[in-house]
Structures are given as C-alpha cells and as structure tokens.
From TrEMBL:
Residues 323-339 have a biased composition (Acidic residues). The keyword Signal applies. InterPro entries: M28_fam, Peptidase_M28. The keyword Signal applies. This is M28 family metallopeptidase. Keywords: Signal. Residues 82-297 form the Peptidase M28 domain. Pfam families: Peptidase_M28. Transmembrane segments: none annotated. Residues 1-20 form the signal peptide. Residues 307-339 are annotated as: Disordered. Gene3D superfamilies: Zn peptidases.
Length: 339
C-alpha cells in the first residue's frame, strides 16, 4: 500500500513525538473553522467570492478566478466566478468541487448558506491544505483540482462553465461536496451511473478502513455532480449530517410510500437549507475538519486506484506484438474497466 493516511500524517505533523498520545487532530475543537465560515455571511455572492479568494491566498495558494457568463431566466444575465486551486502535478485531474454561492431568499436577502454550502467549502479547503502539506515526498499520479463553484443554486452554472472551459479529457474522477456543516454520517449518492462505480467502490473501502459511518443513497438530491455525470464522467456527491437526519433523509428519498415517516414530514436539513435558518450556529468545526480529512484521503485513494487500473500514458498494450484481434479485445477490456 502506497497510500498514507493523511489523518495519521496530520496527527504526526501537528503533534510531534512528545504529544503523539494527545487527541488526534480530527477530534480536536476547531473554532477556526467556525470563525472562518462566519466570514462568508455577506449580503452578496460577489462578496463571498472575495472572502474565498482571501482565504485561499492566506493558505498559500494562488487562486485562479475563472469568470463566466451566468444567470438564468429569473436573474437575467449575471457574471459568475469559479475559484480554482491546484495541488500536485499529473497528466490527469481528480477534480474536487463545492459550490460557495448562497441562495437568494424570498425577501431578497441572501441566505447565510452555511449548511448549503460553506461547510463543504471549509472542508474542501481543509482537504486542499492537508494534501498540499502531505504530498511532500509522496508521489501521486494525478493533479488535484479544487473548484469552488459559483451559481450552483441557479442551475449548476459554475460547474457547467468549468467543464466547458476545462474540457473533460483530463478529468479522471470528480468528488463533489454539498450540505456538510454538522454530523459524522457521510452521505453519498449512488445515482451517477456506471462510469462512477469505481468511485463508489473506492469510497466504500475508505469508509470501512476508517470506520466511518457512510450511507449510500440510491436516490440522492442533485448538486454540481450532475453536470459531470451528464458528461459521462465518474463522480460522487458527498455530504455529512447527524445519523438521525441522514437516516430520515434516506427514508424520505428512498423509502417509498411505506417509509414510516409521519405525514408531511420534512427532514430537518431540508427545513433549514434555502431558508433564513441555514445559519452559522449550525456549523460544527470539528465535524467539518473531520470531513475535510476524509475528502483528502478519498482523493489519495482515488489517485492510487486509478494508477493501479490505468496503463501509464503512452504505454503499449501488453499483447501488441501478438494477434491484432487481441489488441482490440484488450482495449475494450480497458474501456470497460473504469480508470
Ligand atoms: Zn447546495
């Protein structure tokens, strides 16, 4: 196994030998994350862009602000801005996405958009920072591209714009995070089609290794992931919630008529998001940090899995010297095997 646990690496780096017995970092209080998330509470999405760029810059990244012509029928034309940072180098990309825009409420004010989706943004920054630190001396075969998308709430417009400008050829896998501010149950959608199967397998293996409570949803609410699966790319959409909320949400989406939920029951998280109740008080910094490290480990595990299954770039098929008919069969096998 070449995969190092970033949770373990972070523990060593943060603690040093003398403190090695202390609480691992993913279990420490993280008031910095709550304080950081609070900075995103702004009247406009354009101001949230500035907050995000400031954050990434302070973390030592050089964020690339990629503007696009967005807006929809309701808003009219409106420029959007995806914010992109990359970690590591490689011929192909593992793309990690979280939207940072918040929804405009009926009274015209902007939601604080903490559960949806500053929690995920903070987790992704934690993942980017951890990968950046942890990759020193560790060979990886992919570049990690963190895309903080704009205008998800207007119809996944930032994700679509990114895909259009970036192209899909370089993209080996995508991990999206949406709705993640509290709780330790990792939710994931299983509804992004056959190309995404190896991403789910990799995720489930990680959940088992780390002892994470992970819950697969045959039906899962759409987010930026759908822009990528529509393009045939392997993608998983993740979130976190408390165990009860996650189970209630599972039942609401997948339980059918006999789901056992009382008449008119709406899972609490859906009462909160897209409302004035999606507030900073909901966020638990420790849970968000834990999710961030989980995402970093998933990115590394995907890198490893893809490196195992894909031939090195430019490599000749093993059977090239034999029967040409074998070559065709080999190619088909490779195509059929995600990676
Ligand atoms: Zn969202």
């Amino acid at each position: 196994m070449s995969l190092r646990s970033l949770v373990a690496v972070a523990a060593l780096m943060a603690a040093g030998p003398a403190l090695a017995q202390e609480t691992p970092p993913e279990l420490r209080e993280r008031p910095d994350i709550a304080a950081g998330a609070a900075q995103f509470v702004k009247p406009t999405n354009a101001e949230r862009t500035e907050v995000l760029v400031g954050f990434l810059t302070r973390l030592g990244f050089t964020p690339d602000i990629q503007t696009f012509e967005g807006g929809n029928d309701r808003t009219g034309p409106m420029e959007g801005a995806n914010v992109v940072v990359t970690v590591g180098e490689g011929e192909r990309d593992i793309v990690l996405t979280a939207h940072y825009d918040a929804v405009k409420l009926r009274d015209g004010t902007l939601s604080q958009g903490i559960v949806d989706n500053v929690g995920s943004v903070m987790a992704m920054m934690e993942a980017a920072k951890t990968l950046e630190m942890g990759l020193e001396g560790q060979p990886v075969s992919h570049r990690f591209v963190f895309v903080f998308t704009d205008q998800e709430e207007l119809g996944l417009l930032g994700a679509k714009a990114f895909l259009e400008s970036h192209g899909k050829d370089r993209i080996a896998a995508v991990v999206n995070a949406d709705v993640a501010a509290y709780g330790r149950t990792v939710m994931y959608g299983e509804n992004n089609g056959e190309p995404s199967r190896f991403v789910l397998e990799t995720l489930r293996a990680l959940c088992a290794e780390r002892g994470f409570d992970c819950m697969g949803y045959p039906v899962y609410p759409p987010s930026d992931d759908r822009a990528f699966s529509a393009a045939g790319l392997p993608v998983v959409s993740l979130g976190v919630q408390d165990a009860i909320g996650a189970h209630q949400m599972w039942l609401a989406f997948n339980g059918g008529e006999d789901n056992g939920l009382r008449e008119g029951f709406v899972p609490p998280v859906f009462q909160r998001i897209h409302s004035a109740e999606d507030r900073i008080e909901r966020l638990n910094g420790q849970d968000v940090a834990r999710f961030g490290l989980f995402i970093a480990d998933l990115a590394l595990k995907l890198d490893e899995r893809l490196a195992e299954t894909a031939p090195p770039p430019g490599a000749e098929p093993a059977a090239a010297a034999d029967d040409p008919a074998d070559d065709a069969a080999d190619v088909e096998d490779e195509v059929a095997q995600p990676g």
